[in-house]
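Quick log. Single chain, no ligands specified.
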Amino acid sequence: MEKAGKRSWLTVDVRQMQCLIEVARLKSFTKAADALYITQPSISKTIKGMEEELGVVLFDRVGKRVELTDAGQLIVAQAQQIVASFQNLTAELDDLRNLKRGHIRIGLPPMVGSSFFPRVIGQFHQRYPEITIQLFEDGAKKVESDVADGLLEVGVVVLPTVQEGLSSFPFVEEKLKLVVPTDHPLADRKRVELHELAEEGFVLFREDFTLHDRIIGECKKAGFQPRVIYESSQWDLISEMVAVGLGITLLPETICREIDEERVRILSLIHPVIPWKLGLVWREDRYLSFATREWIRFAQEVLSSPSSGSGEMRRSKKP
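-> predicted structure:
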């Protein structure tokens, strides 16, 4: 291929940039094609065309995964800014035309979506049938990062946030509970102190989940390094592994209410109590489309209602 700079960056269109960004985000041509609702050969052809047009290799193929080259990282960083600017321009023009339609990309951790958002999404769709919603399921750390980077308009994360420049609306605050097998020596207790779990094997969420780091951090404060036996992205699989005696886990109260208590025992954790606080987040310095602003307002209204089943709530910055 020719050296970078021989071709014109201006000949690459926004659609090609979106393809590039999705492949880089998902590290897979197939997953990127699914996310963009196009075929895998089409996205491969698009990336190949960009490489030929720009005169650089954008991705290294490593088995079934792809990784950005140095040139690819540079171009993706610029493409993200260009696509964000284009999307902001499009959204502002739509608002000027007073068209109550649009598309929202929302990030949800897998264990949060089914507990809080089907009703919110259903009611929102009834009111605004022309606004489409695309859900991205990832751990809270990844969701927060993607909102900060402008890849998602809104996300649900575990508070407090790490990334700067995010506004938030807390909608639930709970505590983590200890989940053990029914035949575990602690099963008949009502409360357990964290340091008593020093010799246990833990079943935790994966590293891209905020709870992973938080639980390990609290264990270290209690004087021990937890022995992690298994990791998963699915709370139901984690509870099943505990039920068959593969280890113990710590889960939020909302999730514990979904677990079959005939198969496990759910105990209060004390000294320390580990909080689990969820919130909606969005970029405070980015233009928000009508659809996104209305989604945030609507979600605040529904999640703040007494019938929502959420825990203690309060409002933060308005969109």
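The first strand starts at residue 59 and ends at 62.
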